[in-house]
Amino acid sequence: MESSGALSGKRIVITRAPGQSEDLRAELSRGAGAHVIELPCVEFREIEETTDLDGAIRGLGDFAWLLFTSQNAARFFSRRARALGVDPAQLADPRPRVAAIGPATAEAARAEGFSVDFVPDAGTGRSFAGNLRGCVRSVAGMEVKNPVMGFVRAVAGVKVLVPRSDLALRDRGAADWTEVLRHAGAEVTAVATYRTCMPESLAGPQLDRMRREKIDCFIFASPSAFHNFAKSVGPDDLRRFALSSAFAAIGPTTASAIRGAGIRCAIESPEPNAKSLIEAMVKHFRNPSRRATHKGAKHA
After folding, report:
1. Pick among 1.10.101.10, 3.40.50.10090, 1.10.240.10, 3.40.50.300: CATH of 11-42+201-290
2. Can you give the pTM of this predicted structure?
3. Distance of alpha carbon 268 from alpha carbon 135, whole angstroms
4. Region 42-66 average pLDDT
5. Which of 73, 128, 202, 212 has the smallest number of Cβ neighbours within 10 A?
6. Average pLDDT for residues 13-37, to the nearest whole number?
7. Residue 69 reports pLDDT greater than 90
8. What's the mean pLDDT when you consider all of the chain?
9. What is the DSSP letter of 158?
10. Is 64 helix (H, G, I), strand (E, B) or coil?
């Protein structure tokens, strides 16, 4: 990686859920030389009321497409399916075709036994939803060569199942998906598959230590992680953190959540992967005199 050692000595806080930050931690510490601190600001749990999810799993053959928008959706959906005696690796026909947003989600779905039929090129749900909108307007009567346009034609008039977090539709990126698919003519069923929660340990001694010590950057990978962090530290400390540290967002949806709270998002990763994030961080820290507010950002 070109950024090898470029973040040496920087104290970076990762706010991802436990067990979901190993790759990013390795790239930051071994690859870029940063000192990494983990402060999980979100955790994922099984939903308590499974009636709708169970019905969707038992009726899986009624859906033409199964769309996973996150790794957690693939994992929790598969876990519940197996609890009901449905093995993703041995689905009988008719089985739905499977689409996954991004290579990491596709990998998670395959690890659970699904055969993945379609993975869009776009790196985020929001950007691909934007591509879908354009395709919806132009696909009618055309020979389909672009794979995204092919997916739009494939979902028109059919049933699509979208497993999601219980909070997903509060985030604009997830809402884009269901809106655009419905606009494309699909009959979309979005079903809560797992819960996004605040860890009980968040308001603990580690957070108190961060109030006393210098932190160079906080990394947020979801709006939920940022909102939980903001709730735990309170508005005054949130502004102090944002003034003394750089807030980094993995993807535009998270960046919008930070700015929506009136906080500057100093670093935005254009793609939801470690390489893209670290490149954006290196660029930020290499140009301390040009750390202008990103377009649309607000100062605290």
Report:
1. 3.40.50.10090
2. 0.77
3. 27
4. 94
5. 212
6. 87
7. no
8. 82
9. S
10. coil
